[in-house]
Amino acid sequence: QPETRKNFFFKMILPLVLRVNDRITEDRRRLMPLLAAARAGRPLRAEDRLWLAAKLDQYDVRRAGLEELARRMDMVPPSLAMAQAAEETGWGTSRFAREGNALFGQWTFAAAGGLVPKNREAGKLHKIKVFQTLTQAVGAYVANLNTHRAYRGFREIGRASCRERV
User: Fold this and answer.
1) SS (H, E, C) 22-66
2) Which end of the chain is less congested by CB atoms within 10 angstroms, N or C?
3) HSE of 84, CA atoms in CB hemisphere, 13 A
4) pLDDT of 42 strictly over 80
5) pTM assigned to the model
6) Distance CA 145, CA 76 (A)
7) Alpha-carbon dihedral of residues 88, 92, 97, 98, nearest 10 degrees?
């Protein structure tokens, strides 16, 4: 039944999105005092500098620094993630979701792995990225929204109000 499938889908996806958002929230809790210290010109401990270097790399922030990291290191509204996953997978029924835990239709051009779309245009090389777990799929989706240039506008609208409502 469609209603049962939709309810099950939301009950399955929502905890995954919340888990990924919780990890980001924990990282933001660590980032914000470091950002304040850097703004004030206070030196950072070596372990904090190492953590920041890893996060700058993770969020693909090069020269822009900590201010840009703070914009990128942010949660994604659960309603957005769930709606997009439902749309992309037909409520979890798509071949990509069933065979590759692909909830968001993310493309890959890697030679190995990935699922070839059945109706892919001739000459196209993209595949749909495969994930070992659904949590990995959600994490990759959130990372994509938080790093790819196509979503700069999304990041700039300010997600603080979304954090406050959760």
Assistant:
1) HHHHHHHHHHHHHHHHHHCCCCCCHHHHHHHHHHHHHCCCCCCCH
2) N
3) 17
4) yes
5) 0.87
6) 8
7) -150
